[in-house]
Amino acid sequence: MAEPSLARLSALFFGFLLLLATYSWVPRLHSGLLSGTGVQKTLGPDPKLRVDHSSAKPHHPLDPLTVQEIERVRTILLDHEPGFGSGSATIHSMALDEPDKTLVVKWKKGNRLPSRRAEVLALSVGQSHVIVVDLDSGRVVSDVVNPTSGYPILTMDDLIVASQVALKSIEFNRSVEARGVKLSDLVALPTFTGWFGPEEEGRRILKVQCFTSQDTPNYFMRPIEGLYATVDMDKLEVIKIVDKGMVPIPKAAGTEYRYNVQNKPVHMDRINPISIEQPEGPSFLVEDGHLVKWANWVFHVKADHRAGIIISQATVRDSETAGEPRSVMYKGFPSELFVPYMDPGELWYYKSYLDAGEIGDVSWRHSEILIPNADIRESRPKVTLVARMATSVGNYDYTFDWEFQTDGLIRVTVAASGMLMVKGTPYENVDDLGDKEDDSGPLISENVIGVVHDHFITFHLDMDIDGPMNNSFVKVKKYVAKTEKDAQIKLSLYDPYEFHIVNPNRKSRLGNPAGYRIIPGGNAVSLLDHDDPPQIRGAFSNNQIWVTRYNRSEQFAGGVLVYQSHGDDTLQVWSDRDRSIENNDIVVWYTLGFHHIPCQEDYPVMPTVAASFELKPANFFESNPVIGVAPIFEKDLPVCRPFASS
Amino acid sequence: MAEPSLARLSALFFGFLLLLATYSWVPRLHSGLLSGTGVQKTLGPDPKLRVDHSSAKPHHPLDPLTVQEIERVRTILLDHEPGFGSGSATIHSMALDEPDKTLVVKWKKGNRLPSRRAEVLALSVGQSHVIVVDLDSGRVVSDVVNPTSGYPILTMDDLIVASQVALKSIEFNRSVEARGVKLSDLVALPTFTGWFGPEEEGRRILKVQCFTSQDTPNYFMRPIEGLYATVDMDKLEVIKIVDKGMVPIPKAAGTEYRYNVQNKPVHMDRINPISIEQPEGPSFLVEDGHLVKWANWVFHVKADHRAGIIISQATVRDSETAGEPRSVMYKGFPSELFVPYMDPGELWYYKSYLDAGEIGDVSWRHSEILIPNADIRESRPKVTLVARMATSVGNYDYTFDWEFQTDGLIRVTVAASGMLMVKGTPYENVDDLGDKEDDSGPLISENVIGVVHDHFITFHLDMDIDGPMNNSFVKVKKYVAKTEKDAQIKLSLYDPYEFHIVNPNRKSRLGNPAGYRIIPGGNAVSLLDHDDPPQIRGAFSNNQIWVTRYNRSEQFAGGVLVYQSHGDDTLQVWSDRDRSIENNDIVVWYTLGFHHIPCQEDYPVMPTVAASFELKPANFFESNPVIGVAPIFEKDLPVCRPFASS
């Protein structure tokens, strides 16, 4: 898979990001945190491949807001209380408010689009607003204030400003300098730590932690342990400075990761260049910027400021029924990310790429010797289409892959890379630690503890097998889940269940209901008590599989307003309503996890680790759907002559 | 990954297979089972790429027996009682009897090879013989009769003869014809069903089941249910014919899988040809036919009649210590395969290919925006080397991949494909079944039940972290397993352990012991009671991880003589000896499983399903070992111009 390439999908998304960049930036930023110029330089594809989106129009009901629509929403809000015009209210996020599912399902190309609406999360004098703006009529149609606990997703401004506030504090500066760190090397990183305790209720707080970038770009490996400031983001004041005393700052040597400054010999034979080639070009088409057509699949794909990548209306053509397009999944996206002891709500992609491409493997093979006089060696290629989003979220870098196979299988893979969040320590050797083990994690370099952590990503999978209604969730073959509490699933190797979403109204010729099966891959679970505050907020990670009744407002598994929320609007809360999920419109939630006890190989950067799950057709097709797909023939691959082996 | 390609590894193995073919065939075989000509035609690479092995010599202590050595063993045995010369004894298997580990570890290229020995499993008048022949002295050095219950692996002759015996039975023929099946369409398939019951003790039995190949090559989908014959392989007589009455034979329509006779339109846009290209050729070298050198890895690879593919002496070079080659794994191979309700001991590869190649992905990435005026977008390619063995074992086709990454990780993947073993039934629709469910499995086509089954493969992983001795098995960070019973591990998501093999005598600069971690992927477990006879024989699947003390005779987890064994020589038995495994020479066993409830998509052939696990360095290196590895640069990939997207 090529690195951020210049496919049209990328261009589309870069367009969106560029827009975001121009929309909300403080242009000149404090050194050590962000440079507006720096952001511009790191975003965007090669200038000659940029696409101008300024006059783009929506073509599909699910297409994201266009540049013009975003501008229009801003204009409409200028007249809306409380004071967007006066600047006392700020827009924290804006995205398409998707039309009702029934309208989207009925819509066909050529029809008028349903009304275009935007959902805006805003903040005004400490109050959260969830606002819907109707673009067709030009009016605000609803504005709900503080529907739940918590605040909207943070803006870039929030982060920048919080750091600036801390850095204006003389006491803070003194503490930094007392540690031998120059202010010009200081990186003040805002972090979210969710549950602050009663004295901080009712205020929007951020914790600012410090790192030094002296002699390295990898400041993450040079934490200034024991010093942080708590900042009120709205009053723009420092509430508290905590200085626990000096902890040695880990050295810069060995932290450099830029290839062009590496200077140690690598004892490894050269790996020759390798690429995946399609001499006749790729096999997928993208219509109107978002509709992807490949092999027997069609799906809508878009970037989203919160979800990253959303796949919608995935349908697959059935050769048994003359190519009838059949519904599989209405909407799928990573709904929430929980990295204990960090926060949910970190789905904040300020640097993301979309990429797509095809990869090749073997989908089926068989050789046969028991047939007289036959030379049977059959195989089918497995070429899959991958829609990948790569993103950097501070120290971590993630990729989210939605992989489509011609046999109807969808594989979702999350890979994590980047670098660890580490903690400084006085220790330089495990012998110094002796029996007194650091609770946070193991020593991975001198003075560096790799903090043990997990990553949980809960995916929202609105499965619509042969249609939105008439779906059920079945454990094994016969046990149909009736209500939501029946479908709070903790996976166990010793539970022999398979988990299927079926449409009992559509039966195969043999009488099996059409369905898809959820196949877990490697996984990990949260070990926090369900009552632990972070776990209450991250309650969507209590189970690996959940099934809820479709409800358009139930999208983000940690709630709409996640920041400093109390966990009153999570997937656990919705599921506990115990609604009927039999023969209905249901949504599956799958939680994928990685448990990570760091080791020295994760220093100074972490190699990619990946986990995945699959959605596989089970009695959806009448028989194996790819038996008629052509093998790859030598004559089709004339381009490169193999180099003779030595 | 290309289909059976023409790498030198393949050529080597084909050479071995061709030898096997000439060695033991009955040239003219009954129609409907095997044709000697058919076998010849399906084996072997393109004639112009064949390698002549007739004068090959061994170069490494672990190199498999050469053509000349095999001939020599046969000659030596001609004079050995009981009667190999007279034909009353038959050779069931022959392979290198590997030299003692200490000799192999000490050996260096240029030294004399340790004595070459062959281990022969033979049968003579119903007695099993485990014979060791010393090639240097030209003598039989040991012959142990019936060391345990069970018989040696079956030969092609056994299978052919058993079928012939059944087909000579008039009663049997009548039953076949009574079902409307022509004898010329009959495929008589020998199957192994392990536990026969007391009346069959002391005899070598085979069960012959019938299928019809009328109008299709996919006879597996046309079982003649309810009829089988039990045959005594040594007396060459039918013991019993079971005819439970007629069950409809599933139709031929829809079973064809050969691409060139497919006639239904496939509603799918064309997928353009795709290949993985290395314009400068592959990066691996193979020395002396078996020693693979790639990037920072060296390992010995060979085909084995029983294990399929064996990886030995895998070492990785450490750039921190000037390229010092460090031992990781002494020997790794799939030790036993258990497919309840089928037998262990089915590791009988009569059609296997070895293949190797490189594949590309991303090993690490990071983008950084918080550094002023920097444009940081770093990534490292992940090009891995895969040694793959593809094999057909009757209806199933497996691939076993050993994948090596430059960061020291080894990934083992097993993929299953081919077609299901099915059962005939009168039913054509699930409604006909009603509440009365077929215990064997679900309906996947008219009159076809897909039998529910599992596949368990236990891998033998003789980990030698920085040397053979001084290894320990650690759960989490501090709990070191002392004896074998401490290391009988049932995986559970709710057990937060990590599992490491460490060398406590080799510590990193921080004091962490050098180690490798076992990372499970998706898995499944056997649901049979531990007391169930098949589970006693397949007891190696009771746990997902085991660790035993190195013992050269403990290689095959179901025992040496698996056929009709009683489970007296399995991994469970060895592990229950509870030997000390702390700071010693230890072996890890990993059981990987797939649970398969068939569905219509598995008919008439099964798409590939795969499962894997990883062996990942943990404090083995001082820090991330690939940070100095070059990214892939555009200029290195000049060969193919991308086709412009439409």
From TrEMBL, chains A, B:
Its EC number is 1.4.3.-. Residues 45-64 are annotated as: Disordered. Residues 360-626 form the Copper amine oxidase catalytic domain. The active site is at 355 (proton acceptor), 396 (schiff-base intermediate with substrate). GO terms for biological process: amine metabolic process; response to jasmonic acid. The modification 2',4',5'-topaquinone is found at residue 396. It holds the Pfam family Cu_amine_oxid. Gene3D superfamilies: 3.10.450.40, Copper amine oxidase, catalytic domain (2.70.98.20). GO terms for molecular function: copper ion binding; primary methylamine oxidase activity; quinone binding. It comes from Brassica napus (Rape). Belongs to the copper/topaquinone oxidase family. The keyword Metal-binding applies. Residues 152-250 form the Copper amine oxidase N3-terminal domain. Contains 1 topaquinone per subunit. Residues 60-142 form the Copper amine oxidase N2-terminal domain. PANTHER family: AMINE OXIDASE [COPPER-CONTAINING] GAMMA 1-RELATED, COPPER AMINE OXIDASE. The keyword Glycosyltransferase does not apply. This is Amine oxidase.
